């Protein structure tokens, strides 16, 4: 079957033809290609088109598609262990690996997605502090948990809806929204409701309103405000973990969150998530403590095997991060030069292997209000142009461009050539 036939028939059986809304390409004037296979930096659709993939499954595929070691780990493990719902040594290996690698994670719990990680971390913070309120930032996305669906960035933004139907007022009454990179907006909330705030949850490098790195002083002040007010600081590193640096964004900023949420890369491309942090907090989780959270598939052997293999490979090849930075810089400089020459209204933000190109007349994009000023009409034209040239980027102005270690300088040149021939 061809791309359009599969997509059209999918619509009969899955809402919008997809299992996650952004895949439906609603913001751009075309049907999504239906992806058949991937290898290294490339993906192939059912019509036989080849694309250089700059989505990388929205982040996880940092080693590229079907990395031979990850494939082998999954194959070998599947011969003897698919799922037991019981303790395995593989879980220990991945948990120990992450705890001894990520500086502020002493203990962790595996779950099955980023959403599960963030919602469980918030529940734990509430259980630990005995408080209900949380502070999140406009434009930050932490998954589809009801309490987070207020000014929730990318997917919700692309759909053009303010939050989501089906979320009772009661679910969001404890969610207080502050402005990213604006510490005074957080101070104001703490002044009024500080003693009720269980946690501040933040993407240290925001990746769901395009890419917006947190200002160092902003993040440091968040740490201080949480300490002053007895609230926990949760870094949502679902996207940035093992991507912007091996030890995550917290290692770049040198800030100690109380809890960290992870997913994407730690599962090596299989469904995964984890949350972890200070031992005294993690020990409040059932069966040790009173905060209940569980999962039949959590710590699944295949996922653990793919995750360990991915993280070990990243560890054993520090040159990968050098390569990613080099390509990221080349992409950033190249796009900036082309935009200047062609007088395109573009702002570029980047942190390591996460990159965003905003179509805006402004000179900076530092928060959600800035991001929302982008011209999504120009983005749609850019997107259609790029995909026709075989460059697969996310079909939304508010998603990141991701690099993987199999991308080459030639792949980045191809991106730049395609961008160079783009006319508004
Ligand atoms: C920062 C962040 N947190 C949480 C999530 C939710 O993760 P998942 O889609 O695995 O539920 C995402 C997803 O993109 C994310 O980027």
From TrEMBL:
GO molecular function, one term: glutamate-1-semialdehyde 2,1-aminomutase activity
Subcellular location: Cytoplasm
Catalytic activities: (S)-4-amino-5-oxopentanoate = 5-aminolevulinate
EC number: 5.4.3.8
InterPro entries assigned: 4pyrrol_synth_GluAld_NH2Trfase, Aminotrans_3, Aminotrans_3_PPA_site, PyrdxlP-dep_Trfase, PyrdxlP-dep_Trfase_major, PyrdxlP-dep_Trfase_small
Modified residues (N6-(pyridoxal phosphate)lysine): 264
Known pathway: Porphyrin-containing compound metabolism; protoporphyrin-IX biosynthesis; 5-aminolevulinate from L-glutamyl-tRNA(Glu): step 2/2
UniProtKB keywords: Cytoplasm, Isomerase, Porphyrin biosynthesis, Pyridoxal phosphate
Isomerase keyword on record: yes
Pfam name, any one: Aminotran_3
Cofactors (names): pyridoxal 5'-phosphate
Gene3D superfamilies named among the record's database cross-references: Aspartate Aminotransferase, domain 1 (3.90.1150.10), Type I PLP-dependent aspartate aminotransferase-like (Major domain) (3.40.640.10)
Cross-referenced HAMAP family: HemL_aminotrans_3 (MF_00375)
Quaternary structure annotation from Swiss-Prot or TrEMBL: Homodimer.
Family stated for the protein in its record: Belongs to the class-III pyridoxal-phosphate-dependent aminotransferase family. HemL subfamily.
Protein name per UniProt: Glutamate-1-semialdehyde 2,1-aminomutase
